[in-house]
Amino acid sequence: QVQLVESGGGLVQAGGSLRLSCAASGRTFGTYDMAWFRQAPGKEREFVGALWRSGLTDYADSVKGRFTISRDDAKITMYMEMNSLKFEDTAVYYCAGRGSTSGKFDYWGQGTQVTVSS
Q1: Degrees (nearest 5) of the Cα angle 37, 40, 45?
Q2: Tell me: the pLDDT tens digits for 70-102?
Q3: What are the distances in angstroms from CA 83 to CA 14, 73, 76, 91?
Q4: pLDDT value of position 100
Q5: Are strands 10-13 and 57-59 parallel, antiparallel or unpaired?
Q6: Beta 46-51 vs 18-25: how paired, if at all?
């Protein structure tokens, strides 16, 4: 089992920055694909970015160039640096993990709220 705990959310003005953290327990990142999702009020949950077990990353077009995902293997923690935040980035952000190389993500954190004021 993998437990994921997000932190780092908060209130920030448009144009500002935040760094989210996702602390994992139980396993090392090398055997898991990790990702960030977000869900805004009244909207479907959407993919934000992924950090594959290979170390490669992918991002949604809406955040490409503004968000950066990284990890610290020693701390078993994944980070997402969010810069140039926009009002439409407001959402609950979730980190997720999966042991398989495809399909749904099996492990989810509780979410952390990010609110961007315009």
Answers
A1: 40
A2: 999 889 999 999 999 999 999 999 999 998 888
A3: 10, 23, 23, 15
A4: 87
A5: unpaired
A6: unpaired
CA dihedral 105, 115, 20, 22 (to 10 degrees): -40
Interior angle at CA 105, CA 21 and CA 56, nearest 5: 60
Tokens of 31: 């055997």
Three-class DSSP labels, the chain: CCEEEEECCEEEECCCCEEEEEEEECCCHHHCEEEEEEECCCCCCEEEEEECCCCCEEECCCCCCCEEEEEECCCCEEEEEECCCCHHHCEEEEEEEECCCCCCCCEECCCEEEEEEC
The residue assigned the tokens 């977000």 is 38
- At 31 the pLDDT is 85
